[in-house]
Amino acid sequence: MDQLHIRGRVPGLGKVVPDSELRGLDSVEDRDVELWIADGVVVEGPLPDAVTVADGGWIVPGLVDAHNHVGIAPGMGVTIEQARAFAAADARAGALLIREVGSPVDTHPLDGDPGGPVLVRAGRHIARRKRYLRDYGVELEHPDALAAEVRTQARAGDGWVKLVGDWIDRDIGDLAPLWTDDQLVAAVAAAHDEGARITAHIFGTDALHGAIAAGVDCIEHGTGLTDDLIEQLATKRIALVPTMIQVENFPSIAEGADRFPTYAAHMRALHAGAPAVFAAAVEAGVQVFAGTDAGGFVEHGRIVDEVAALAGLGWGATGALAAATVAARRWLSAGRCEVGDRADLLVLAADPRIDIAALRAPVAVVCGGVVL
Question: Residue ranges of the domains in the chain?
Fold first, then answer.
């Protein structure tokens, strides 16, 4: 593996990142940096044999896609080689850290791929029989078995567990919770006892009450959040990954649900209200992170589309950039290009705080010390 040298400027992200937790490429103010890379990690320099990748430009840590499914594709049946190709597409787009929140395929064989992104996994989705997309996850016949299955998936993943919190109930023709409040409390306790964090897929409002009260660590989508629930997220430090480019598919989901007009109307209403809901979460100080939900309706390699969508929520490009880089890496306890960290970074020709589109055409993408 080549030794690399990169010189450039780190964009300051203001007080989005507390001073006490700054490290690596975290920065309150703009500053010049010089990075030396050997064996895939950032090291002390200089290195006389290093190849200069960039001398100038803007340097940011590798983007984080906090909601991705490398092991899922339309039609299912994903092989590990297909998953490898999906991961590579995400990495080329700048997503060098992926939180894989549910996959029917064990993607651990991708770990250590040269030039491949880091994956942090949640095992398989946990749902109830006939209450989620078929064959995507574990479908429990008896919902009281939830806590036990949480333990199983916590041991199969890398520190996360994923619940399906709501889905269409065909008997009532609308979104409905999958679990009772007591089942959720037991599930959260089981995850935390296993040393894992737990997140919940939730579109509507009804399922949010029990999940938030039980103390889940994150909400995926969250389109049904109300002002009082947003306040609870902020107070309890429960994160939100809104998957904005996936929410854009809600109208097409509704179009395909003509047998369930109440559900279809509900999905359209959630879509219409989503921008205001997510902006309110940002305004309230909720931890909000970038996630594409790639793997189903959303193609891989679209992380910059999600970051651009987040920039429209009132915190601008600076807030969106933090949500997809240093803030997300702190949340996931991942490196930020400090000496000893894996070398995952982007070099940009222009300041992404001024034009977020600079992320679409990086001068260089360095993934684990490999220039892609």
Answer: 4-61+335-371, 63-327
**Residue showing tokens 């009532």:** 172
- Give the right CATH number for 63-327 from 3.20.20.140, 3.40.50.1000, 3.40.50.620, 3.40.1210.10: 3.20.20.140
Q: Are the beta carbons of 285 and 238 closer than 8 angstroms?
A: no
Summarize pLDDT for 275-304 with one digit per residue, the tens: 999 999 999 999 999 999 999 899 999 999
- Tracing tokens 């994956």 back to the chain, one arrives at 119
Query: What token pair was written down for 180?
Result: 């009772």
Residue 212: CB atoms within 10 A of its CB come to 22
Query: Long-range contacts of range 124-128, CB-CB < 8 Å, 24 or more positions apart?
Result: 124/153, 124/156, 124/162, 125/162, 125/163, 125/164, 125/201, 126/150, 126/153, 126/161, 126/162, 126/163, 126/164, 127/163, 127/164, 127/167, 127/178, 128/164, 128/178, 128/179
Here the tokens at position 164 are: 């399906």
Peptide bond into 46 cis (omega under 30): yes
For 190, the 3-state DSSP assignment is: helix
What's the confidence (pLDDT) of residue 36? Answer: 98
- Domain covering 4-61+335-371 in this structure, CATH number: 2.30.40.10
In which residue ranges of the chain is pLDDT below 50?
Answer: none
pLDDT at 22: 56
What is d(CA 372, CA 362) in angstroms, rounded to the nearest whole number? Answer: 11
